[in-house]
């Protein structure tokens, strides 16, 4: 059976300093960063206070706009509901549209990270040996609303209940590749004829103290706290020294061509191909020659039935860590070879930061907007004279060009690599 065409008919997005996709796209076109000093990190006295974070005004707007309150749920669930409502409205669906057979829900989300205040509650239940007495903790009346009561798929469960999805429900907890993998899995299910429609994407809230401690201990965060916050994410520059924590969410509505045509939906683009490869190299880095990343990109192109010369733009994973950027640059040389000189590249994390699971979904939406508007988004803080790979076509200013196809990369800790090909409708 031939694979069915999969179309994007709607999307929603929230990112630092942007409550929708158009606001973020405009901000990036104006070469404005979403990264700033995080008040929480300042209060805690962290050596580096830079982050992309959703501020109190954004949260007020999110809760005020929800069609139905989600009391008793963590903030991740509220964010997921808000972005899902955006995506469905954009696709001209009502909330009950997914409550039918052959509908699916695919959400990327890695973990619920408790705050220091939430952990203080748990500390009240230490026994004489400094261990948590879980029986005493769980007997506490409020324990069901404390962090250890939340599931990794809490937001997926909430959305499934809220939207009435019952056919296919999946949570991807695949590190930095989770968002792209959720979209890719939805694409596969529709292309293979198992589903007609799916809501897919990711949500992640990790701009708080525990992720800071975790990634700082790994040496993954930018170590230059004296640099201005909006200059710290600088992919492919020689002086790069780590990524900037961020948060956000994005979701897409995918439909088979037949389903979209029956309801006369407007197609915003197509998912043309997808690949997911898991390597066994190292927990925190890939093969230093870029070969594993190259295999993933080649597999995505093969799935799309495209040659390297038919790709107009690559939305890079581009975390601004030393090893990741080098591996990705070497992989580009292996995959695109002679076409690399014409290939346009962009690294959105330079402006948005790294929202882990959320990043692949956010970058997919930005890629679709680049196709629609015919632009190459800028890579902030990039200067060819200080770049490690100056032959790569990265630009610090927005570029106008026709874009028909975009390859978007997501490479996660644990060796989880994914790539998706998006194209014009």
TrEMBL record:
Pathway in which the depicted protein is active: Lipid metabolism; fatty acid biosynthesis
Q: Which GO terms describe its molecular function?
A: 3-oxoacyl-[acyl-carrier-protein] synthase activity
SUPFAM superfamilies assigned: Thiolase-like
Q: NAD as a keyword?
A: no
* Signal peptide range in chain numbering: none
Q: Which SMART domains match?
A: PKS_KS (SM00825)
- Name the Gene3D superfamilies for this protein: 3.40.47.10
Any one of the GO BP annotations: fatty acid biosynthetic process
Q: What is the protein name for this chain?
A: 3-oxoacyl-(Acyl-carrier-protein) synthase
């Amino acid at each position: 059976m031939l694979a069915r065409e999969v179309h994007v008919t709607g999307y929603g997005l929230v990112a630092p300093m942007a409550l929708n996709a158009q606001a973020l796209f405009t901000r990036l076109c104006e070469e404005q960063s979403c990264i700033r000093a995080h008040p929480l990190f300042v209060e805690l006295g962290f050596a580096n206070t830079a982050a992309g974070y959703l501020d109190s005004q954004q949260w007020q707007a999110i809760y005020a706009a929800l069609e139905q309150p989600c009391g008793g749920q963590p903030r991740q669930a509220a964010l997921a509901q808000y972005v899902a409502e955006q995506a469905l409205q954009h696709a001209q669906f009502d909330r009950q549209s997914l409550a039918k057979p052959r509908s699916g829900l695919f959400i990327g989300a890695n973990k619920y990270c408790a705050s220091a205040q939430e952990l203080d509650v748990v500390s009240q239940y230490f026994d004489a040996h400094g261990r948590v007495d879980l029986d005493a903790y769980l007997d506490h009346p409020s324990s069901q609303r404390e962090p250890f009561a939340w599931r990794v798929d809490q937001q997926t469960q909430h959305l499934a209940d809220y939207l009435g999805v019952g056919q296919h429900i999946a949570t991807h907890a695949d590190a930095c590749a989770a968002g792209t993998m959720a979209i890719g899995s939805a694409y596969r299910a529709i292309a293979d004829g198992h589903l007609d429609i799916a809501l897919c994407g990711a949500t992640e809230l990790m701009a708080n103290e525990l992720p800071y401690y975790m990634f700082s201990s790994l040496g993954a965060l930018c170590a230059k706290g004296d640099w201005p916050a909006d200059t710290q994410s600088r992919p492919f520059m020689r002086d790069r020294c780590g990524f900037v924590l961020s948060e956000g969410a994005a979701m897409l509505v995918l439909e088979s061509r037949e389903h979209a045509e029956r309801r006369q939906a407007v197609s915003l683009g197509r998912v043309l191909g997808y690949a997911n490869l898991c390597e066994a190299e190292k927990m925190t880095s890939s093969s230093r020659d870029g070969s594993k990343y190259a295999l993933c990109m080649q597999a995505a192109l093969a799935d799309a039935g495209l040659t390297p010369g038919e790709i107009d733009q690559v939305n890079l994973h581009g975390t601004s860590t030393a090893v990741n950027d080098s591996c990705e640059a070497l992989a580009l040389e292996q995959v695109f070879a002679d076409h690399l000189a014409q290939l346009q590249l962009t690294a959105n994390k330079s402006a948005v930061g790294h929202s882990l699971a959320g990043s692949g979904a956010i970058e997919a939406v930005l890629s679709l907007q680049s196709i629609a508007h015919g632009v190459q988004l800028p890579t902030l803080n990039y200067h060819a004279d200080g770049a490690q790979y100056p032959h790569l076509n990265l630009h610090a200013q927005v570029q106008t060009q026709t874009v028909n196809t975009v390859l978007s990369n997501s490479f996660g800790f644990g060796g989880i690599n994914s790539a998706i090909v998006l194209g014009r409708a």
